[in-house]
Amino acid sequence: MVAKNANVSWRAPAPVPPAYAAVLERAMQAHQARDLDTAERLYGEVLELRAAQPDALHYLGVLMHQRDRSDEAVRLIQAALKITPKHPDAHNNLGNIHKECGRLAEAEACYRRALECGPTHYNALSNLAFVLEVQERPDEAFETYARLLREAPTFAHGQYMTGLFLRNYAQNVEHVEQSIECFREAYRLDARNVRALEGLGVSLYTLGRHDEAREVYRDWLQREPDNPIPRHMLAATGGADIPPRADEAYVRNVFDGFADSFDEQLLKNLDYRAPEVLADAVGEVLPAADGSLDVLDAGCGTGLCAPLLRARARTLVGVDLSGGMIEKARARGGYDELVVAELTAYLQEHPAAYDVVISADTLIYFGDLAPVLEAAHSALRPGGWLTFTLEVLEGEGDRYELSSSGRYRHTHDHTQAVVEAAGFEHITIGMDMLRKEHGKIVSGWVVLARRGGNDMR
């Protein structure tokens, strides 16, 4: 269970006096429907009637975290636990808040307490396995995931999370094969979890069972012909023509779906470095951070680049195709403007508007880079700088490929040629570690290039 998004367990509250039982029930119904304003007002009414009502304190705490008021959320849930100290849901939700705030040791302690209070609280057990994994304690995580499968074989989310762990930390072929069975079972138990199908396809492809992987995506596409994910992944596994770039619907679908858990997913990649690497790159060529530049964060996601760019920016604009990601960036703060838009079109519509364009792990969804780089060139003022990351395709030659991850990779030769063709100069292309994935380092090209002229502020 993740406290910040919609996956909150809604167990019936303990019997309460009729004077406020109905109000509490309405508050929880509004909360489940994501009508947070109504829910907050109704929880407040319950607490006016009884200041120490533990369910209202607990779920109001969940709501406060959903509104990015996490310190207040912790205080409220801790107050609830003083009244009902053996409430496993409250311990689990408190653990989720700590986890999403990066306080992993505190999260672990909460999950262990939840399991002491409720040994069959399998959401807490799954969350415990996750934070052990994130803390790079894979042996303990493996034991915890194994316990989860042993004690809760019909828990679909547990099967899915175990499948991811087995593939990401596979020490042998058998672990990847086991991940395949977990993904199959996760989807059998919960057909709404289409990410289990995506995971299944990736694991099959990892083992070289390419025909089976393509069959997974073909079957999925037959059932959901309008779903862009299986269409894109079928191309990524060689079952269809490779598009010049990822379909907008695919990117929007993937990142809207990840918006609530995106930063949590990055916890699995504690060495995620793309924003810092790009900020360092532009820092070497820009003047002092005097707040004089107009900066575009192109593909801003949840806003991880904002704190690294803010001091240099007179105006800092973020643009992203995913409305869900933009909402998270808005909650994080730091931007003067946030826009939901397709990147190439946005750049084309803002000629000579920016001194710096930075794009962290966004152009990996473009195979043919020419249109977006030409648009970036036009959006920069003379003397302006562009910096972005790509995933490395080893070898020589002017080429790119769509990998089984659904992302594109580019050779050094191709990257150099297409940046030059877009009109840039002073081009540097270095290699750096951008993140870890499946327990392995993902190497990236770090590109820095300048539009000609000297009108830079």
From TrEMBL:
BP-aspect Gene Ontology terms: methylation; protein O-linked glycosylation
Pfam name, any one: TPR_1
CDD domains reported in the protein's UniProt record: AdoMet_MTases
Domain of life (superkingdom): Bacteria
Record bears the keyword Methyltransferase: yes
Keyword terms: Methyltransferase, TPR repeat, Transferase
InterPro entries: Methyltransf_11, SAM-dependent_MTases_sf, TPR-4, TPR-like_helical_dom_sf, TPR_rpt
TPR repeat residue numbers: 54-87, 88-121, 194-227
Stretches assigned to the Methyltransferase type domain: 296-387
GO molecular function terms noted in the UniProt entry: glycosyltransferase activity; identical protein binding; S-adenosylmethionine-dependent methyltransferase activity
Name listed for the protein in its UniProt record: Methyltransferase
Gene source species: Rhodanobacter fulvus Jip2
Classification of source organism: Bacteria, Pseudomonadati, Pseudomonadota, Gammaproteobacteria, Lysobacterales
